[in-house]
Amino acid sequence: xxxxxxxxxxxxxxxxxxxxxxxxxxxxxxxxxxxxxxxxxxxxxxxxxxxxxxxxxxxxxxxxxxxxxxxxxxxxxxxxxxxxxxxxxxxxxxxxxxxxxxxxxxxxxxxxxxxxxxxxxxxxxxxxxxxxxxxxxxxxxxxxxxxxxxxxxxxxxxxxxxxxxxxxxxxxxxxxxxxxxxxxxxxxxxxxxxxxxxxxxxxxxxxxxxxxxxxxxxxxxxxxxxxxxxxxxxxxxxxxxxxxxxxxxxxxxxxxxxxxxxxxxxxxxxxxxxxxxxxxxxxxxxxxxxxxxxxxxxxxxxxxxxxxxxxxxxxxxxxxxxxxxxxxxxxxxxxxxxxxxxxxxxxxxxxxxxxxxxxxxxxxxxxxxxxxxxxxx
Length: 377
What we know:
Largest sheet: none
Number of strands: 0
Distance between the termini: 67 Å
Mean pLDDT: 78
Number of domains: 2
Oligomer: single chain
Structural class: mainly alpha
Radius of gyration: 32 Å
Low-confidence stretches: none
């Protein structure tokens, strides 16, 4: 009988004879695999970024060519996000078409009333403003002659004379520019009409339109599109309502201050502040700078300095109180991201790009955040 192995001690493994010759030969490393891993990773990111940049450029080019319908669609979505709560509330007691009609009539009445009051105010104060501006130019001349400017007498008056001369000598050019601007007015009216037409259907049956569009997609892609679409709408509606609230508060504060300081055209300047605040970070200071110029010409440098101080005060209130409270729950963008978005939008598409940049970035970020999280059961 052969010797048995002792229990508890495993038999040592001996490779079979000739096993060494059966090992696979080490193949030579290709030149591409000799590249450092960090460089391969950087190259992978680089070509993906180039592809994304090319896609973004093509998208911006196409949207620029389709500027009018794109602007109309954006305005329709803005109107839908603002009027949707009122329509849903009225639809509890009325048929939905009638609720949509009443909401639109109320909105048109508010907008028409504000424009009428602004036009009446401008017409009533225009003669007074002209007289005060004429006297204000003399006061500005005297102010600039003193410290710290020490300018020669008549600097502002000479500037006004040069502007009048320029306008007289370039009247034909200015007239052609005004005529081209009239075509832009026609385009704006067309965009508003198209936006009104689309928003009626969005308010009446927007949910059914979205569900129909999703059903045209492949079955596997529908859940992701449903989640992304709902996240995009929540972000867009939250941003739109939030920026309107912020604009209304800013305009109210500025209007009260201008009335207290007895600055002419307080109501039109208040409306300008409301519209300008729709462009975050930069719109409100520009509107207040216009108000400061009017205050300088009509009320003197002291009142103008007080209006300039409003830029700092309103900026602090907007940045540290209104934005965190009103928009923090719907739009979570760092102020640096907001500033870069506004600047990039202005470079790509001017004023329109500056207005739409932040909501577009907010929607994109909301969709990315939603799709990165696992779906809720």
